[in-house]
């Protein structure tokens, strides 16, 4: 894959227009268009900024290696993390229900540990390139995790109080 194709793919995968990219790396939109059509190559300073912006190495940008393979591996790892996170959330629910029905408050320790692990694995349930490009959406993401955490902790407290 040529540099222009890689740049265009990276830009589109991150939901950017040519103008957006140009603003971020301090060049003109025309320069971006020229690079994407392989009518020229950026200077080393621009290459460094592009590599930093898209979290790839300069070698990945200018070599024949495929950025897509790296991205697919990252997405696979993120899906695995998501599955593990959901497993821990289910486990927290099971611990809480067992503590309630068996009247054994020490089972709530397993629920709390499971919730903490859910939050940890949940943070890695997005591919790296999406986590980094979605910094604008960080607050809703953290709030949603906190709401789930508070809900499960509320269930645990309710279980302890009713015993």
Task: Give a verbal description of the structure.
With 163 residues, this protein is mainly alpha-helical. The chain has helices at residues 3-13, 18-24, 29-36, 44-54, 58-62, 67-102, 107-123, 128-133, 138-162. It is built from nine helices and no strands. The chain starts with a helix and ends with a helix. The chain is elongated.
Tell me the layout of helices and strands.
Elements: H1 3-13, H2 18-24, H3 29-36, H4 44-54, H5 58-62, H6 67-102, H7 107-123, H8 128-133, H9 138-162
Helix pairs in contact: 2-3, 6-7, 6-9, 7-9
Task: Report the uncertain regions.
Answer: none
Provide the structure class. Answer: mainly alpha
User: Measured on Cα atoms, how large is the radius of gyration?
Assistant: 23 Å
End-to-end span in angstroms?
A: 64 Å
Name the overall outline.
elongated
* SSE series: HHHHHHHHH
Mean pLDDT: 84
Task: Determine the fraction of residues in helical runs and give it as a percent range.
Answer: over 70%
Number of helices: 9
Mind describing the biggest β-sheet? Answer: none
Number of domains: 2
Say how many strands there are: 0
What is the strand content? under 5%
């Amino acid at each position: 894959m040529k540099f222009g194709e890689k740049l265009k793919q990276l830009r589109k995968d991150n939901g950017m227009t040519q103008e957006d990219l140009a603003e971020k790396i301090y060049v003109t939109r025309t320069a971006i268009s020229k690079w994407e059509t392989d009518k020229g190559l950026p200077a080393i300073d621009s290459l460094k900024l592009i590599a930093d912006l898209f979290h790839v190495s300069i070698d990945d940008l200018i070599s024949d290696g495929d950025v897509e393979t790296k991205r697919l591996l990252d997405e696979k790892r993120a899906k695995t993390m998501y599955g593990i996170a959901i497993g821990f959330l289910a486990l927290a629910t099971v611990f809480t229900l067992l503590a309630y029905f068996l009247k054994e408050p020490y089972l709530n320790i397993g629920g709390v540990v499971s919730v903490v692990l859910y939050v940890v694995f949940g943070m890695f349930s997005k591919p790296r390139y999406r986590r980094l490009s979605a910094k604008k959406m960080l607050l809703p993401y953290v709030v949603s995790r906190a709401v789930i955490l508070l809900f499960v902790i509320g269930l645990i407290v309710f279980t302890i109080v009713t015993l």
